[in-house]
Sequence to fold (142 residues):
Amino acid sequence: MAFAVIWVRQRRKFRPHDQIHTCGTIGRTYVRSMNLISAEELKAKLDRSEDFKLVMAVSDWAFQISHIPGSLNGHSPRQAAESLRPDDEIVVYCSCVQSIASLWAYRFSRASGCKNVRRFAGGLMDWDAHGYPLEGSSVGTG
Fold:
Protein backbone atom coordinates (compact mmCIF):
# COMPACT_ATOMS: atom_id res chain seq x y z
CA MET A 1 0.00 0.00 0.00
CA ALA A 2 2.91 2.37 0.59
CA PHE A 3 3.67 2.61 -3.13
CA ALA A 4 0.17 3.82 -3.97
CA VAL A 5 -0.17 6.28 -1.11
CA ILE A 6 3.23 7.85 -1.73
CA TRP A 7 2.59 8.27 -5.44
CA VAL A 8 -0.83 9.81 -4.88
CA ARG A 9 0.55 12.27 -2.33
CA GLN A 10 3.23 13.42 -4.77
CA ARG A 11 0.63 14.30 -7.38
CA ARG A 12 -2.16 15.83 -5.28
CA LYS A 13 -3.20 16.06 -1.66
CA PHE A 14 -5.99 13.68 -0.68
CA ARG A 15 -7.58 12.72 2.60
CA PRO A 16 -7.03 9.02 3.51
CA HIS A 17 -10.53 7.92 2.43
CA ASP A 18 -10.06 9.74 -0.91
CA GLN A 19 -6.79 7.89 -1.55
CA ILE A 20 -8.44 4.53 -1.14
CA HIS A 21 -11.39 5.50 -3.34
CA THR A 22 -9.17 7.03 -6.02
CA CYS A 23 -6.70 4.12 -6.07
CA GLY A 24 -9.50 1.58 -6.15
CA THR A 25 -11.23 3.31 -9.04
CA ILE A 26 -8.05 3.56 -11.07
CA GLY A 27 -7.14 -0.02 -10.18
CA ARG A 28 -10.47 -1.41 -11.38
CA THR A 29 -10.28 0.60 -14.58
CA TYR A 30 -6.68 -0.24 -15.30
CA VAL A 31 -6.77 -3.96 -14.55
CA ARG A 32 -8.53 -4.76 -17.84
CA SER A 33 -5.40 -4.13 -19.92
CA MET A 34 -2.87 -5.34 -17.37
CA ASN A 35 -0.26 -7.96 -18.31
CA LEU A 36 -0.54 -10.56 -15.51
CA ILE A 37 1.71 -13.44 -14.46
CA SER A 38 0.67 -16.47 -12.38
CA ALA A 39 2.48 -17.86 -9.35
CA GLU A 40 3.48 -20.94 -11.34
CA GLU A 41 4.89 -18.91 -14.22
CA LEU A 42 6.79 -16.60 -11.86
CA LYS A 43 8.24 -19.59 -9.98
CA ALA A 44 9.37 -21.12 -13.28
CA LYS A 45 11.09 -17.85 -14.29
CA LEU A 46 12.93 -17.76 -10.97
CA ASP A 47 13.89 -21.44 -11.22
CA ARG A 48 15.34 -20.82 -14.71
CA SER A 49 17.27 -17.80 -13.33
CA GLU A 50 15.81 -15.56 -16.02
CA ASP A 51 17.05 -11.97 -16.12
CA PHE A 52 14.21 -9.80 -14.81
CA LYS A 53 13.50 -7.42 -11.92
CA LEU A 54 11.05 -8.66 -9.30
CA VAL A 55 9.71 -5.67 -7.36
CA MET A 56 7.61 -5.86 -4.20
CA ALA A 57 5.62 -2.65 -3.80
CA VAL A 58 5.34 -2.40 -0.01
CA SER A 59 6.89 -0.45 2.85
CA ASP A 60 10.44 -1.18 4.03
CA TRP A 61 9.04 -2.77 7.17
CA ALA A 62 6.71 -5.14 5.28
CA PHE A 63 9.51 -6.07 2.87
CA GLN A 64 11.84 -6.95 5.75
CA ILE A 65 9.15 -9.17 7.28
CA SER A 66 8.64 -11.37 4.20
CA HIS A 67 9.23 -11.31 0.45
CA ILE A 68 9.88 -13.59 -2.52
CA PRO A 69 13.61 -14.40 -2.78
CA GLY A 70 15.40 -12.14 -5.23
CA SER A 71 12.91 -9.28 -4.85
CA LEU A 72 13.74 -5.59 -4.84
CA ASN A 73 11.81 -3.32 -2.50
CA GLY A 74 9.84 -0.75 -4.48
CA HIS A 75 8.46 1.23 -1.55
CA SER A 76 8.37 4.48 -3.52
CA PRO A 77 8.21 5.50 -7.16
CA ARG A 78 11.49 7.41 -6.85
CA GLN A 79 13.32 4.37 -5.47
CA ALA A 80 11.87 2.13 -8.18
CA ALA A 81 12.79 4.59 -10.92
CA GLU A 82 16.40 4.66 -9.70
CA SER A 83 16.77 0.87 -9.84
CA LEU A 84 14.81 0.12 -13.04
CA ARG A 85 15.55 0.86 -16.69
CA PRO A 86 12.93 1.16 -19.44
CA ASP A 87 14.29 -1.94 -21.19
CA ASP A 88 14.15 -4.15 -18.05
CA GLU A 89 11.67 -6.98 -17.80
CA ILE A 90 9.79 -6.17 -14.59
CA VAL A 91 7.35 -8.14 -12.44
CA VAL A 92 5.59 -6.19 -9.67
CA TYR A 93 3.69 -7.63 -6.73
CA CYS A 94 2.50 -6.70 -3.26
CA SER A 95 0.91 -8.51 -0.35
CA CYS A 96 -2.30 -9.93 -1.83
CA VAL A 97 -4.86 -9.67 -4.58
CA GLN A 98 -6.90 -7.11 -2.58
CA SER A 99 -3.93 -4.76 -2.23
CA ILE A 100 -3.70 -2.02 -4.82
CA ALA A 101 0.00 -1.23 -4.39
CA SER A 102 1.05 -3.47 -7.27
CA LEU A 103 -1.64 -1.89 -9.47
CA TRP A 104 -0.05 1.49 -8.88
CA ALA A 105 3.47 0.10 -9.30
CA TYR A 106 2.43 -1.43 -12.62
CA ARG A 107 0.79 1.78 -13.78
CA PHE A 108 3.68 3.97 -12.65
CA SER A 109 6.27 1.71 -14.32
CA ARG A 110 4.37 1.78 -17.61
CA ALA A 111 3.89 5.55 -17.42
CA SER A 112 7.63 5.92 -16.74
CA GLY A 113 8.45 4.26 -20.05
CA CYS A 114 8.97 0.64 -18.99
CA LYS A 115 7.52 -1.50 -21.76
CA ASN A 116 7.87 -5.03 -20.39
CA VAL A 117 5.98 -4.93 -17.08
CA ARG A 118 3.84 -7.69 -15.60
CA ARG A 119 1.83 -7.90 -12.39
CA PHE A 120 1.73 -10.88 -10.06
CA ALA A 121 -1.76 -10.10 -8.79
CA GLY A 122 -1.94 -12.79 -6.09
CA GLY A 123 1.07 -11.34 -4.36
CA LEU A 124 2.80 -12.72 -1.32
CA MET A 125 -0.28 -14.52 0.00
CA ASP A 126 -0.74 -16.48 -3.24
CA TRP A 127 2.99 -17.28 -3.38
CA ASP A 128 2.91 -18.59 0.18
CA ALA A 129 -0.31 -20.56 -0.45
CA HIS A 130 1.54 -22.44 -3.22
CA GLY A 131 4.22 -23.37 -0.68
CA TYR A 132 6.95 -21.49 -2.55
CA PRO A 133 9.97 -20.17 -0.60
CA LEU A 134 10.02 -16.83 1.20
CA GLU A 135 12.75 -14.67 2.76
CA GLY A 136 12.52 -12.23 5.62
CA SER A 137 12.68 -11.79 9.36
CA SER A 138 9.39 -13.61 10.05
CA VAL A 139 10.04 -16.57 7.74
CA GLY A 140 10.28 -19.80 9.69
CA THR A 141 9.23 -18.23 12.99
CA GLY A 142 5.57 -19.15 12.73
Q: What stands out?
A: The radius of gyration is 14 Å. Confidence is low (pLDDT under 50) at residues 1-32. The helical segments are 2-11, 16-30, 39-47, 60-65, 77-83, 101-111, 123-129.
